[in-house]
Amino acid sequence: MSPPCEFNKSYPSVIRSETEMFKDLTYFLNANNVTEERTRDIQLCVSEAFNNAALHGNRLDPAKQVKLRLEVNRTSVIADIIDEGQGCVSDIQQRREPSSLDETGRGVNLMYVRADDVILTSVEGGGLSVRLIFGDNVFRTKTVTKNAR
Amino acid sequence: MKITRNQSGNVTVLALSGRLDLASGATLKEQVQQEFQGNNVHIHLNLTKVDFINSSGLGALVSLMKETRLKHGRLTMSNLAAYVTEIFEITQLSHIFEIYQTEEEAIASYGAATSVQ
What we know:
Largest interface: A-B, 24 and 22 residues
Strand order of the largest sheet of chain A: 1-2-3-5-4
Radius of gyration of chain A: 16 Å
Helix content of chain B: 40-55%
CATH topology of chain A: Heat Shock Protein 90
Number of domains of chain A: 1
Oligomer: heterodimer
Strand order of the largest sheet of chain B: 1-2-3-4-5
Largest sheet of chain B: 5 strands, mixed
Number of domains of chain B: 1
Strand content of chain B: 25-35%
Structural class of chain B: alpha/beta
Structural class of chain A: alpha+beta
Number of helices of chain B: 4
Number of helices of chain A: 4
């Protein structure tokens, strides 16, 4: 049975959703032979984007959803995290750098450091979409398909 | 995340296991608050079995550090996995926390600090 190439799920904006999302994400990455190192990077970046979406985008309103979409192709893993809030791209781009004693504000920097590309897009009708792309040394093995004789 | 508690002299040792993230960071803070209520203000965190940390987990640790300082205590950590150490360094938090290679070194530092006083 082939591993899933795509995953789509929406989660309510509550704290416990992070745990459920993490399990789903880890299962998907393991099923698609992602290396241990890149699995950690993807887990970190997706959890940062997911928590930002739930906490800041959707303000922990359980009626609002955080959508997670995962895609695997020949060379990369792509994650889209979409909220239903009122924030916009400039909110993130103009964020203040945290001081050492700040308890928040480090997540976005971590995404930019550990993901190979981060694309922010405002969603028509409201919400923010964060696309994370991981394209370097992602997969453990290359699958070679031989034609049946 | 699982938290195992031990006492070493006047230092409360909390061994953490699993992920340190938004939900478990809140759990850890609640546990430490209970220690403060019991007048235990020196807290050592053994992170040997912590296999994941994100900015929410880091935020919980920063919060705990500030609170222990307010109570004239210390917060130390030890046995960080390589990936966890990387996250501390990326966020430049490795220089604001007291981090030791081993739990034994960390506990010994409490005794040394007491002797200096």
